[in-house]
Amino acid sequence: MKHALWYFAAVIAILITWHISSRSFDIKTRAGNLLGFNDEQQMRLQLRLESDPLQPKCNLSRVCPPNQFAVKITSGAANVVGPKICYEGQNIMSHVRNNVGRGLNIVVVDGETGNLDGYRLLSGNSGAVLAYLSQIDPGMFVFVASYDNVEDKLSKEVREYFVEMGSTMVQSIKYRDSWVFAGRVGTRKKLFETIAVSDEKTNIFEGWPEAVEVGGCYPR
Length: 220
Description:
Layout: H1 2-22, H2 27-34, H3 39-48, E1 68-74, E2 84-87, E3 90-93, E4 103-109, E5 116-122, H4 126-133, E6 141-147, H5 156-164, E7 178-184, E8 192-196, E9 213-219
Helix pairs in contact: 2-3
């Protein structure tokens, strides 16, 4: 009788395990929901649990070495398609996640640990942008993607903050230019940056230039 009960319990355990493994769902997201995590906390959890180190992250052409992180930044296209910032295989900000908008879309990563520190859509005036940037600690990585027009967000003081992060193009940004940038606070060392100038003669969208994109593996 005892052996029969053990056998029955083993069969039940196997069936439960099979049932769980056969269901297709995102365990990380469900765990985050059960624990009451918000969207930003769930993304931090996903970054820690990111699997398959043999697959390139963020659709890069190669796998990044352990001492480097994968990042790809894409600006918005005109005022229709939002920007996207991918870090270590996770789309931290994107049109699909519904957390981007017109203005400066910014992701901040801890320069020592590589952990996601936060993200923010800066759609207000330049004063609000300046207040946010001034709170970012030295050594943090900052990833920026523009959407629509950002010229009115870039006062002289705001541009200087980005110069301190390593930007060499922010001083020239004008109305509806597309801009992506990655730098590090307090180092004046640019990781990467590119811009598409808005020009009526060359714009591929009516009133807007093409979207721009940069990405690769960068040292922690």
